[in-house]
């Protein structure tokens, strides 16, 4: 017997869990395969950044994270001795939220299950093949093998993605040249090492406080030929002592691992009916603490496009726009992390560059530009028709709105996952122009006292502005083109 699903998602990490929630919200039947029977006991990431929180807020999901995380109002660019302030950035969440990745996954999983998602733990994707109609996947669980046929399959299966390899998608990039050892451990003497960087005669040790333990990172000067060889506490202890030139006793290891500085990006995020999101589509060193956040960004961009494609309402190019938008964004992330790795290398030849960038980052405008770049707050997608207005293509601010039935805001209107057309004219022209899309686009007549110059705004389901009119241009040129471009032909 062959199981069926409209969309088969491989991997229950941040990307897979948010994506299944987005698809379920749109009524798409999903099955998630996760090879691990349960979530691992260690935690990789520890933050949600401003952009990820802004996106999650467009589905009513940010507040539950904010309620339990700890806000840090600044960020860092590895290699630059400058604090990047987040207070002046364009966001509703001007901070990085400290919260374990495992907790983010738990909340997203509970949310997806509430929406009817099916998550099969202990089920591993082994092979797949696609034709013009569907994708056929072979899955193993215990000693049983079975097959699933789906209209689309999304690989959210991490950096070593089986989906990417099975689909034959190239993964070009740079090999790792340096490796680091990481240990979640306890310091026998809590005051023996301060938090942050400590430089010694043999290298540097980085210490990050964690609840009840510390995360220690130091260079792995002699990585073994097989980089998957398990890291032992003895190995980490020796590396730390060698770097510091003294003994700092480590104990009670919870997680020991090794990571390199390879950066790679899938050449295609979409190949026929197979798609990639999150680490399956891009890998980079953890500098900048961005991986979870980009994985969520990919899933958020893909969800509404894939749902509309499965429903048959999407224009043919819509899935391709996922590649165009997120591949470009991923390339920026890779460039940012590579820059941080280079600047963090303490290479004397880079000193003039570090000096120049430090001076730029100390300038208020430069500081904000750095902060918005490394958090993805500067993300802007190409729109059709594109215009000069600085908001076009960007995530819409969470506009406060007064409507006939009371006060609301844009994030609340976006929560169901539909596009929103704000009619702020007080007339009927906007509604009439968009009448043929009323099954896909929520029309809201309102006023926006804080932005009286706005006349009408079309916001995609992911919160990005597709089209807008201000008081200077009262005509509706481009509205029907934008509706057609993102949502297909008008009904009836
Ligand atoms: C040491 C370290 C520290 C990090 N710190 C941060 C940080 O502070 N902030 C941050 O934002 N990011 C951080 N990251 C990066 C972050 O952990 C990843 O970018 C993020 O987990 C990617 O999410 P994902 O959903 O794409 O993939 P993953 O979280 O890797 O999830 C993929 C899932 O797919 C499953 N899977 C794989 N193959 C199969 C298969 N064949 N069949 C079924 N299931 C399969 C895996 O078991 C896994 O559960 C860190 C990473 C590391 C290594």
From TrEMBL:
Q: Which cofactors are reported in the record for this sequence?
A: FAD
Gene3D superfamilies found in the cross-reference section: 3.30.70.2450, 3.40.30.120, FAD/NAD(P)-binding domain
Please provide the record's keywords in A-Z order.
FAD, Flavoprotein, Monooxygenase, Oxidoreductase
Q: Which residues form the FAD-binding domain?
A: 5-336
- Cite the GO molecular-function annotations of the record: FAD binding; oxidoreductase activity, acting on paired donors, with incorporation or reduction of molecular oxygen, NAD(P)H as one donor, and incorporation of one atom of oxygen
SUPFAM superfamilies tied to this protein: FAD/NAD(P)-binding domain
PANTHER family, per the entry: BINDING MONOOXYGENASE, PUTATIVE (JCVI)-RELATED, TRK SYSTEM POTASSIUM UPTAKE PROTEIN
Instruction: State the name under which the record lists this protein.
Output: Monooxygenase
Identify the species of origin: Amycolatopsis rhizosphaerae
């Amino acid at each position: 017997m062959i199981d069926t699903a409209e969309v088969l998602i491989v991997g229950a990490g941040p990307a897979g869990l948010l994506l299944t929630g987005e698809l379920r919200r749109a009524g798409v039947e999903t099955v998630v395969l996760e090879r691990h029977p349960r979530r691992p006991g260690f935690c990789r990431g520890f933050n949600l950044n401003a952009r990820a929180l802004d996106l999650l807020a467009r589905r009513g999901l940010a507040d539950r994270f904010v309620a339990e995380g700890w806000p840090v109002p600044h960020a860092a660019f590895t290699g630059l001795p400058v604090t990047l302030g987040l207070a002046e950035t364009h966001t509703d969440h001007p901070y990085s939220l400290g919260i374990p990745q495992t907790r983010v996954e738990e909340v997203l999983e509970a949310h997806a299950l509430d929406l009817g998602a099916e998550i099969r733990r202990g089920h591993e994707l082994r092979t797949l093949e696609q034709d013009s109609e569907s994708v056929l996947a072979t899955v193993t669980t215990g000693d049983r093998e079975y097959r699933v046929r789906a209209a689309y399959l999304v690989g959210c299966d991490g950096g070593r993605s089986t989906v990417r390899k099975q689909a034959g998608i190239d993964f070009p990039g740079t090999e790792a040249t340096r490796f680091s050892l990481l240990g979640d451990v306890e310091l026998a003497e809590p005051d023996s090492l301060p938090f942050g960087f400590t430089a010694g005669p043999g290298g540097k040790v980085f210490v990050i406080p964690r609840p009840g333990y510390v995360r220690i990172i130091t260079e792995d000067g002699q990585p073994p030929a097989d980089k998957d060889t398990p890291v032992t506490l003895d190995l980490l202890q020796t590396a730390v002592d060698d770097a510091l030139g003294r003994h700092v006793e480590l104990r009670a290891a919870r997680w020991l691992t090794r990571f390199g500085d390879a950066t790679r990006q899938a050449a295609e995020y979409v190949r026929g009916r197979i798609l990639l999101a999150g680490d399956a589509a891009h890998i980079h060193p953890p500098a900048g603490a961005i991986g979870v956040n980009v994985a969520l960004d990919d899933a958020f961009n893909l969800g509404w496009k894939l749902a509309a494609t499965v429903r048959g309402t999407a224009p043919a190019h819509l899935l391709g726009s996922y590649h165009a938008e997120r591949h470009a964004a991923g390339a920026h992330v890779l460039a940012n992390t590579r820059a941080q790795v280079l600047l963090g290398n303490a290479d004397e030849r880079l000193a003039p560059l570090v000096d120049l960038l430090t001076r730029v980052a100390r300038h208020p405008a430069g500081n904000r530009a750095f902060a918005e770049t490394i958090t993805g707050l500067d993300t802007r997608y190409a729109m059709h028709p594109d215009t000069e207005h600085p908001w076009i293509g960007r995530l819409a601010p969470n506009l406060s709105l007064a409507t006939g039935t009371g006060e609301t805001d844009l994030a609340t209107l976006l929560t169901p996952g539909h596009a929103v057309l704000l009619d702020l004219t007080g007339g009927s022209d906007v509604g009439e122009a968009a009448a043929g899309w009323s099954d896909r686009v929520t029309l809201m007549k309102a006023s926006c006292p804080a932005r009286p110059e706005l006349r009408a705004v079309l916001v995609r389901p992911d919160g990005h502005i597709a089209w807008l009119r201000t008081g200077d241009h009262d005509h509706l040129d481009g509205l029907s083109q934008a509706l057609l471009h993102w949502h297909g032909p008008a009904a009836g």
